[in-house]
């Protein structure tokens, strides 16, 4: 994914009335939170943001240009209108180039396991991992090739290849992908055998009926 840059303006006035006014003008109220508690209120062009935010994940570092000044940040939250899905507000979290950060990185699985072709079932319970590193070392995603997985084999977090400078925070024993045999379903033939046996035994005697033959 190419570098993502959002153009923004300083937002002086706050409050819900001002926010509604901005939205009517095709702008999105937003805020950049700094690492040292300071924050910067801004607004963005709604169409530009919607066009460029596609594919941006929690671990994607974006650039926000405010009056010629560049802020590197994560898109931490987007508030949407429950009726039409439009974005009401955006929260950015600014990063510092020489400060170690902690972030979640998505896992991208590709390939068809050998075990699946042999009748096994693939499970992928984990979709991201947490790491610590400098911003410049943060992976955009972790690619995992599962084509070689056979039945009863698995890949754990500890097996993932992380580049130098990236420290794993997530539990290394977590399962990323595994292939296992399908659970045996109840055999229809067995159920049919039970039905046939009941039919052969004849209808059950009504309650209270003497089973002895009448003379």
**Number of helical stretches of at least 4 residues:** 4
Low-confidence stretches: 211-215
Mean residue pLDDT: 85
> What profile does the largest beta sheet have?
6 strands, mixed, barrel
Q: Helix/strand/pairing class, anyone?
A: alpha+beta
Q: Which descriptor suits the 3D outline?
A: elongated
Give the strand line-up of the largest sheet.
Answer: 1-3-2-6-5-4
Radius of gyration, Cα only, in angstroms? 30 Å
First-residue to last-residue Cα separation: 93 Å
Helix content: 10-25%
Q: What is the strand tally?
A: 13
N-to-C series of helices and strands = EHEEHEEEEHEEEEEEH
Please indicate the percent range of residues in DSSP E strands (runs of 2 or more): 35-45%
Can you lay out the helices and strands and say which pair or pack?
Layout: E1 5-10, H1 16-24, E2 27-33, E3 39-45, H2 46-52, E4 61-66, E5 69-80, E6 87-94, E7 101-110, H3 114-117, E8 121-123, E9 128-133, E10 142-145, E11 153-156, E12 167-168, E13 175-180, H4 188-200
Parallel strand pairs: 1-4, 2-6, 7-10
Antiparallel strand pairs: 1-3, 2-3, 4-5, 5-6, 7-9, 8-13, 9-12, 11-13
